[in-house]
Structures are given as C-alpha cells and as structure tokens.
What we know:
By secondary structure, the protein is of the alpha/beta class. It is 36% helix and 23% strand.
Amino acid sequence: MSVPSIPIIVTRAEPGASETIQRLHQLGYAAVRAPALTLHPRADIALPPTSAISGLVFTSANGVRAYAAQRDDRNIASWCVGPATADAAKQEGFSAVYESAGNAVDLAGFIASHSAPTDTPLLHIANAAAAGNLKRELESLGFAVEFAPLYEMRPTPQLPIMVADLVEQCRPAIVLIHSAKGASAFASMIEGHGLEIAALVAISEPASRPLAKLAIDRTIVADAPNEDGLLRALGRAVATLSA
C-alpha cells in the first residue's frame, strides 16, 4: 500500500481534529474526520478572581481556549503541558507561557523546578474528567491547587459517514488515538460495524489500552506524548504497511 492509499482516521475532538488533518494533508496522507468525542463548554463553573490565584495550569489546548473565552487577563503565569498547549496559550495572547515536556505528572515536576509553592493556589483548567493525578502530584510538592472543569467531552453516538463508507468498501484504515477517553469512545462507536484496522497509532501506551480488546495486529505508540511524536509513530506504521 502506498501512503495516499491508506486512510488515516482522526478520532481527535474538534477543533484539534482539523489541525491534525491539515498536518496529515501536508504530509500527503488521506485523512478521515471521525471525532470520537465532542466538546461541551460548562457555563456553570465559577472561576476565582485572578487576584486569588498564582498561576494557571493547562493540560490541553481546549482548556486554554475555554479559559480565554471567559477571562481577558493574559498576564498571569500559564503552565502548559507540551507544545500544542503552549502554542494555544501564545495564540490566545498569554504573555508568560511555560512549556513542559511529557505528561501531566511531568508538568507538576516542571512547575516545582521553576517556581516555589505559595499560599495562593494554582488553578488547573481542564475537562471534567481530568481531576486527579496532577492535582495530587502538585499538592505532594507543596502547592495549593484548585480545579476548574470548564468543559466536558461527550462520546459521539453515531458512526461518521466517512468511516461507514470505509466499512462498506471493506477498506482497511489506520486509526490515530489522542487520548484514552477518545479511544474508549471510538471503541464503542465502531462496535459491531466490522471496521478493519490495519494499524493503531496512539499518543501513549495508556491511550492505546481501550482498543486492546480488538486484537489489532499493529499498535505503534508515540515516542513522545504530543502531536509531533504521534505523527512520527504514524510514519513508522505506514512504513511497516508499505514494506
């Protein structure tokens, strides 16, 4: 199979899905838009005043955008996990953006190595399912943390038309996975439809686990948990299929 002949199913939620698809097109891939999750803002969450927090902690670009939609202050320190989240913060006009590498737990260590705990809490902005490891890790390092779930991700209930077309045509595809929750939603979405998955490309090993029960022959995990690492893993997957 040549590169253009292998459809790449993008399960990432919007607006990130469009960003991934644009990069895939630039690399010569045929991308299929199939967000397994849909973002829903939460208007019921009250944010503390900016004066009552020492900094913002963002673990996704969606969190950056959700906060920016509610607040105009862009001068507060913004701690971001990975380049995509940091880029989103810069695009929204935040002036003090600090970018870590790795996952959310790595971000906690990065914050601790670049700042000291104070009595004023950090504010973690994320989706409703993200409270947990990062907050506990930061608290273990002496930081006070508040959590603001400004959005939630809901599973997409129906199989997208373009994926249904692949099933009908009996065409194998490569599936890109950006998160464990997205993987779980995608597994439920395709259940019983007979989609042939030539390879699974996941942003991390935990993100690949919800699809392990499908017994996919090729599972390639990114060497870094970000978009660049995921696309490098995609290149490796395509190489094995094209050999």
